[in-house]
Design a protein that fits this description.
Distance between the termini: 30 Å
Keywords: Metal-binding
Shape: globular
Protein name: Fumarylacetoacetase-like C-terminal domain-containing protein
CATH class of the largest domain: Alpha Beta
CATH architecture of the largest domain: Alpha-Beta Complex
Organism: Actinomadura vinacea
Number of domains: 2
Number of helices: 6
Helix content: 10-25%
Number of strands: 16
Family: Belongs to the FAH family.
């Protein structure tokens, strides 16, 4: 907890999800230095919005959508700052980056009008909507292409909504191995944050802790010529101005380079 005069430990351990739901623990002793960042929390639901920047749609050669394009990302895709994005080249050879503003719902809501939508936001964080473009193309729908393990870095921290004066006035950037690849602004969204919340809540209930990714500006690797894709050994950073920069190494996954995970724990 940042109390203005430095970081302090909460007197009682509480997850961020508990805080989002309304339990705000009191601060205890002051911590020396800054905390080490980790995944802020593991969302139960992550909703992605595709094709939401005009320059991206133009870069792809597609038509401007008439309504938001929705897809899911899975809880197992979420990782934190500094954790590796793991790529299995027997699964995908076209892993791509997407810097995105992510919003976190703070109240249970349904049928929210756009003029009331921002009041439902607990806070904002930085996201990298890593995407397997070849799987997207194969499937037509985007569950595999967007939902692979480690394909949703979030963080390094959550900034509460009262600290963000205008979510439509934020710079969005990506660097891969130190080279800037994306440089856009949330002002270029086709459907702004308030409209996205209203649209989603028209069809299903949004709950505290749900995350909505709001789309990415032009500059993704797969739409460049020649095409660029993430490879083991790369380092990718995404940043939302005023919120934070999120950095992740890329490592090999799969039968030869990754982890085999097995557990009886539920």
């Amino acid at each position: 907890m940042d109390e203005g005069d430095g970081w302090r430990r909460a007197r009682r351990a509480a997850s961020l999800l508990e805080v989002i739901r309304g339990d705000r623990p009191r601060a205890g002793e002051r911590l020396p230095g800054r905390p080490r960042y980790a995944l802020p929390f593991r969302p139960v639901m992550i909703y992605g919005i595709g094709l939401n920047y005009r320059d991206t749609v133009e870069e792809m050669g597609w038509e401007i959508p008439a309504r938001p394009y929705l897809f899911p990302k899975l809880p197992s895709s979420a990782i934190g700052d500094g954790e590796p994005i793991r790529i299995d080249d027997t699964v995908t050879r076209r892993a791509d980056w997407e810097a995105e503003l992510a919003l976190i719902i703070g109240r249970t809501c349904r049928h929210v009008r756009p003029e009331h939508a921002l009041a439902q936001v607990f806070g904002y964080t930085t996201a990298n909507d890593v995407s397997a473009r070849d799987l997207q193309a194969e499937d037509g729908q985007w569950l595999r292409g967007k939902g692979l393990d480690t394909f949703c870095p979030l963080g390094p921290l959550v900034v509460t909504a009262d600290e963000v004066a205008d979510p439509q006035d934020l710079r969005v950037r990506t660097w891969v191995n130190g080279t800037r690849m994306q440089d856009g602004t949330t002002a270029d969204m086709i459907f702004p944050v308030a409209e996205l919340i209203a649209y989603c809540s028209r069809f299903f209930t949004l709950y505290p802790g749900d995350v909505i990714l709001t789309g990415t500006p032009a500059g993704c690797g797969d739409f460049r010529r020649p095409r660029l894709s993430l490879r083991p050994g790369d380092h990718v950073e995404v940043e939302i101005g005023g919120i934070g920069r999120l950095g992740n190494p890329v490592e090999e996954d799969g039968p030869t380079g990754g982890r085999e995970v097995s557990s009886l724990a539920q």
